[in-house]
Fold each of these.
Amino acid sequence: MPKILITAAGSYGDVAPYTGVGARLRAAGHEVALATHDAYAPLVRAAGLEFRPLPADPRTARPTAGREERGQEEATQETPPTGGNRALMRQAAAFIHRLGDGLAEAARPDTELLLLSATTAPLGRQIAEAMGIPSLDLPLVPNAPTGDFAPVVSGGRSLGRWGNRTAGRLALRVIDRLYAEATRDLRARLGLPPGSPRTVRRRTEAAAPPVLYGFSEVLVPRPADWRPGLEVVGNWWPHHSPDAQLPSAIEDFLSSGPLPVLIGFGSMASGEGERLSSLAVRALRRAKVRGILQSGWAQLATEPADDDILTIGEVPHALLHPRMAAVVHHCGAGTAAAGLRAGVPTVPVPVTADQPFWAAHLTALGAATAPIPFGDLASPDAESRLAAALARATTDPALRTHATRAAHRLAAEDGAGAVVAAVGRLAP
């Protein structure tokens, strides 16, 4: 069995799915290490994988004032920088440069196969070339150009088939620019001849290697104009122990009344906890539903005296979401899939990057209310809009029916199994 190194960088949602992939590979007999940020070492080790550190935890790299914090997988898939985006793009490029050094350290001489997230792939390909070993791209979002839809970071608005494909190719060139300096220095460090990210990417595309996408066709059907080898295999779910249980405080709250609504924004909205917490509490009361606030990077919280609202920290989606009447979240790829997997309606509040894309697809599926863009939560009618969405999500039977049907379809998929099979074909 080959010694496998999985590399993933960014926020929790950019990293956690690969713990499930790694656990399945380990169960199949492979030796697996996962290289990511120190903050996620407990997740990696809990999955039975070897942890290897990567530098530059994005939680410590704040964007410019007034902009929401985001995971690096999102930051490295931005639209072309203009005006206020330039500082963010410089920060992303600096992050990527440090990431290249970390990946070179993590890929030890006995590594025989690299599995790469979207954030680490442009650099990981250089390492695979230098070591003479195979690699496999495992993106969480559909990042190959297609006429079916515009790049996922463009906000979900179609530009027509020609426009969508053109915008998709432009998005790849933006990523090439972000990785240019890091790629140059990494290739020099590895003793490789000079080569730009665009040159290496085009050479890779010409070889038409397999790419496995870790999302479900329940939400996004595979584009018909994708080349053979680009496969949508289903979601990769974060690993958690089979005997894991919800904390007793949550169980006690759940048993004390009707099903609550979960509200959380994951790694989004850092520094806005006080405002968002107040808004969430008012909307929950106006909708006459109980609620759970998941703290996240926004640090949502409520007063201990609020008997009908509970504040919690990090809890596996697989344990918590099925116990909810509905979920309110930012619609990152993993969170959107987790709510659908649980068969519960969603109130989408997309913030940035690919989140409007997933929010629109959840709504089109009939499993979510109309999205409320995060910026609209600062508007005068935010409380009434959020309360109305909560009321509909918890009372409209059509939303739960569509979500339940989607959950049954997701349960029949085995995304991690597809990775195990692909590794079997690639293994030296």
Amino acid sequence: MHPMVKPALQRAWRDRQAVQFGVTPAQAVVLGPVDPATGCLLGLLDGTRGMELLRKEAQAMRLPDGQVDKLVARLAKAGLIDDATAGGPAVEALRNRPGTLDRLRPDLASLSLVHPEPGAGAARLAARRAIRVQVRGAGRVGATVAALLSASGVGRVEVLDGGSVLPGDVAPGGFPPEAVGERRDAAARQLVRRVAPGPPPRASAAAPGGSGPGGDGGPGLSLIVVAPRDGLDAYVPDPALSAEWITSGTPHLYTGVIEGTGVVGPLVLPGGTACSGCLALGRAERDPGWPRMVAQWRSGRRGAVPACDLGLATAAAGLAAAHALAFLDGELPASTGSRWEASLPLLDWRPARITPHPDCGCGAGGHTEGVRASEAGSAHDTMAG
């Protein structure tokens, strides 16, 4: 083990005997009491020394035997220690690509805070390389989501859409101006490759699972992000379009912008959380006229120019990509079984829980939706010596 204090956490002395790691309430931890010698030891925990070398340096500083081990154990218990050498073959392969790792160091620092066990952040970052995600839709929202996922280390990001890139599709995080007029699918592939932190993984390096819902012999789809250019299909998704995903058990997340309202969610876990069918049935019960209007909206002429504010589209794409990455890293984000909406001009994101409907064929009715419990606590945890 090569212990290092997590570099993402800023450090400051609260007084002569207590050190605070982290600034925000979500991360702040106070370590105390800390004597000056122990404070010097903290400076040596930078990942460049193994435990044996640290013990020798502690002896040279005339510290008691076991002082280093006790300190590392205390820091590890508080979630403040990472291991610069931890991880299996996937992590080692990532370390052997210094250019790729340099691009992803901010992501690694963030993951090390979310997953406090030593080496856990690096393991999750390396695991992203073997993940396959499909983005359906390549407008201002969908193209940006695809670019964000690829740039965050997801190894295979596929984008499905037809037609050609329009001038209104150009966005800072999505298609560049020179892509206008190109086929959307081809332009999306170029975008994903251009922003990726490294070359795509070889087929042999893909995650096990054989032929997934894509049927191409590669790894199975871990997630589908549904980001249609017409925000109506994100706000009122057609259950018929997701029937195959429900049958195959493929998780899918809806996002888009319609009439100045950004939408993220729900994240559907087939058989466990509410799906688009549950959403339609529940809305029809509350508003009997809703199905009639939806049929008119779907069959009528759509607006030639959608109301898709660039700032709102970018915000929706960023939030959707963050929720997707949280799910791919093993968490259940707030969009699981819920939809988040924000409307111009105030942009106050607000959640709406979507309950599984007992008459929906997805099978989620009667199931308890999985929600990550957040424990209430103080802004920091004081560790007595």
Amino acid sequence: MGEPDQDDLREALKTVAVALKAAGRPFALIGGYGVWARGGPEPNHDADFLVAREDAEEIAHLLADQGLHVVQPPEDWLFKVYVGDALVDIIFRPAGTFATRGVVERATPLRVLSIEMPVMPATDLLVHRLNALTEHYCDFAVHIPVARALREQVDWNVVRELTAPNPFAAALLFLLERLEIIEPPRGLTRRAWSAAQPTG
């Protein structure tokens, strides 16, 4: 397979979104294109949709029945759909937690590339991104522009609560606060928050 360009990725996103709508099960645009739909930078790798764990197998069959090239990789948290050379991931366990229909249905409709589709709220998108940080994937430079672009749409206290067990997420939030991209936790003034941080 060749390397898809931006037009290929956009066409793949539209093709799979239309197929998911036809499948009639809850889904949501997430990942880089979910961020882009809400005002962030456009990704250049693949597109991601979220479905409920209980619907994943049926959706995979329904997409295949529509003529799409569906691939089940060794990973047990997603399946892949190829449209030409472009890849779309269909995820049902983001950052280690299986998605339910209730989670997927938090998405709200937005028009993306001329097609109306459900897009996860910005808070959920940031929770997914921060919880995916590990010692093997910890490039803060990728996430800072996203946080800056979406900061007014995000409930950062919810992000802090839902990413609290992840030390890499905590480190990124600390950096965003020090850069004054986001506010300190509620109840602390910036001066008091700064004074409470370790110095060495």
